[in-house]
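Follow-up to my post from last week.
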Amino acid sequence: MTNIQQVAKQAGVSVATVSRVLNGQNTVSSKTRIKVEDAIKNLNYEPSMLGRNLRNSESRILLILIPSISNPFYLEIIKGIENVALSQNYNILLCETDSNPEKENIYFDLVRKKMADGIISMDPAVNIETLKELAEKYSIIQCSEYNVDSGIPYVTIDNEEASYRAVKHLIQIGHKKIALMNSDERFLYSRQREMGYQRALEEHGIPLNNDYILYTKHLGFEHGQQAMKKILGLHDRPTAIFAVSDLLAIGALKEINASGLHVPNDIAVVGFDKIDFSNMTNPTLTTIAQPMYKMGTVAAEMLIDKIRGNDVDNVILNHELVIREST
Amino acid sequence: MTNIQQVAKQAGVSVATVSRVLNGQNTVSSKTRIKVEDAIKNLNYEPSMLGRNLRNSESRILLILIPSISNPFYLEIIKGIENVALSQNYNILLCETDSNPEKENIYFDLVRKKMADGIISMDPAVNIETLKELAEKYSIIQCSEYNVDSGIPYVTIDNEEASYRAVKHLIQIGHKKIALMNSDERFLYSRQREMGYQRALEEHGIPLNNDYILYTKHLGFEHGQQAMKKILGLHDRPTAIFAVSDLLAIGALKEINASGLHVPNDIAVVGFDKIDFSNMTNPTLTTIAQPMYKMGTVAAEMLIDKIRGNDVDNVILNHELVIREST
DNA sequence: TACAGTAATGTAAACCATTACATTATTAAC
DNA sequence: GTTAATAATGTAATGGTTTACATTACTGTA
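User reply:
Got it. Predicted complex:
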């Protein structure tokens, strides 16, 4: 494998000059530049990132922590991150934690060992204590899920308001018996969305009914089905479901269909996220659109900024209610 | 940031000894080992992958080339790859090419620049000439889609046979007018699946009808919808659809539902891949299950083997017909 | 006690590029 | 033609490991 010394020798210059040509510095005379470029072509030389990275003490790799790659919610975010990263000569390492602390730690080690320059964490179940500790030495951003008092910069949406709007929409089209299919109260977004749900009900004088609030362990399709089974078993069945994730909503949809009831005539359903699939179901799903791509680009910009040593501010992005066939 | 010299100094030994402790070599006396371990703990030392990688001329990163991260077909494969990779101390760089040669080239550069130790290509639209050239110098495996004469090792399934079985199933439950919703004939899997389709028809004395064979540009949901629209417009409508991808099939399903027809009573539908979502549709989708996770693990094992300098053989995995509500 | 043989440790080069600083070449001005 | 100023190039250290080879410390035996 050719290295920079061999190029220098072939071109009859010093390695410093070759390096300068490589990095596009303008202190090289065009005569020598051409000599060097010829030598590079001749020898088929490709500069080694290994040497460069060591010298520059950087890996040019960004870590993306997600709980599960199967949740399409993250896909658009990742695309956003990737585009910004690539444009700045960074690459991304996608890390699926399965919300498993051990796996998480393997990935944290990558940044400790200089294999990664920073982290964008999207895992709601991340070990926040470790993350805080890590954030003292390394560049870290939280995306979507965050912790207010951690001091770690984040980009997210206003979950409380989004949830409020979804529920208000259901109320406005005449529903009074509205169930909330929530995830796990450990997560901030879950608590915030529940608050929005409560606020909408209160504002319209609808009393809270605890039978109508369900929690699921995970945001998977099957969990939506299970939760919906419980709801269908209630003696006083709700006429509308607000699920905090499209996957849950799609599970609910499936279960309602299976029970012979009709959406939206018998039960209306609202989801959250506007994943691609929410448009492929029958009926299509009313949902809250998160600006996922944008969230990704912002997160990546924040992280790269932080890596460069700048201070970055938190960002709250706008959401949108998308009304489709399920309501 | 502490380095190995500082640890050596603190422990009162040489860097070689520290390195030996780090790499678990057994030529270190337990007395010194303890000294070194104490120093490591004291100084909070973490070995730098940058130095190590340079010295070892490796990056411990594997490149995964996929056309689109949005196609769930790849997700399980990726999980398989990742598990094997992690267990062998490799990390994976997920690269979405969008079947765009420029983007592809950015990623190829990573291996040229030693930023990656090898490639698993899953992109049917990959530039095979470049890939072949690259394969002479670097370790490369093709997964799912492959090229017979490229000399690049691959892991895949028997597409012709799988397709044959899917169509035969449709024939056995009484269908004679069976449409094939194919992708692009440029791709080997596409040609192979068409051959399986033809063989099944021939074997049962059903004449080929070219109106029943459609091609789509991409494997997306919308392309399935569009193709289905065309099919529904035929004066002699088929009674069954075999789509070469679940996403296409789901698009078809949606379109059939929208037109007021019933699946499977009016039109039966078979997909391909058994992605998670194929079980969430209404009705659930009959499909060919590819052993995606297994395919991933095998691909990763092959690649790591190749990186180690061993020769590897091609692998053909088994598929399975999963009969569900849509037929 | 001396010596061979083995176990433990150390020295220094290698991996490859970048860059502060030093040196040499060139240009401009008088 | 000299000198000063600037442009172009070179030298050598640096980043952090690993490891072949060299050296030293130990063990057991005669």
